[in-house]
Amino acid sequence: MPQIIHERPEHAEQIEPLLDRCFGPDRFKKTAYKVRENTTPLPELSFVTVEGDKLLATIRYWPILIGDVTPALLLGPIAVEPDLQGKGIGVGLMRETLKIAKALGHRLIVLVGDPEYYSQFGFQNAAVLGFEMPGPVEKRRLLVKEFMPGALKNVSGVISGAPEKSLSPGRIATKAETDKIVASLAAFAPPTDA
Ligand SMILES: CC(C)(COP(=O)(O)OP(=O)(O)OC[C@H]1O[C@@H](n2cnc3c(N)ncnc32)[C@H](O)[C@@H]1OP(=O)(O)O)[C@@H](O)C(=O)NCCC(=O)NCCS
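^ thats the input. predicted complex w/ coenzyme A below
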């Protein structure tokens, strides 16, 4: 049965080929990669879905700043093994990791993706709010989700990778605190039909 677990260094050799299969070799030209190039994914929010030794899916979240001042997370990439798409693995990974991001104190999540898929998780258009990416992006695909009403108030501007010192309060959770939050999420289980 598939399980969602924290990404470990040994998963990298399966993650990169999975991303190639899902997004193609040109994926590095995407504007989201430009945002990510000067920062690193948060280990406490990097997860994989595995079944035994086989990696089925990956998701990562990166620290960003909106308009140079507002800390937030950039979600992505999320990718599910092509043969296994449409079985609920993506929804499971989104729901469980968003729950953890919220529990860790994050307030805003940005992503570039299809609104038809991400609206079910509470994402709305960010371009109309004045969000911009530092390169080309389809405006309809620039999305944001707030974890509490009001988190988006007065927030707009260009999205950039966050330097370590400007990370949001949620990022300061220690390893022990993070482990406790993850362990406390009873619903941290894979979809049953995958
Ligand atoms: C997008 C992705 C992560 C979704 O994961 P998944 O496990 O395939 O999706 P789920 O099984 O959880 O959800 C399936 C449902 O979402 C819908 N869906 C999947 N991708 C969609 C998209 N891009 N736009 C609209 N709906 C989409 C399916 O049609 C299906 O709907 P249904 O249940 O009504 O039939 C996965 O398909 C994937 O890796 N795709 C390639 C890489 C990619 O595009 N990543 C996202 C970039 S932001």
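The helical segments are 12-23, 31-36, 89-103, 115-118, 175-184.
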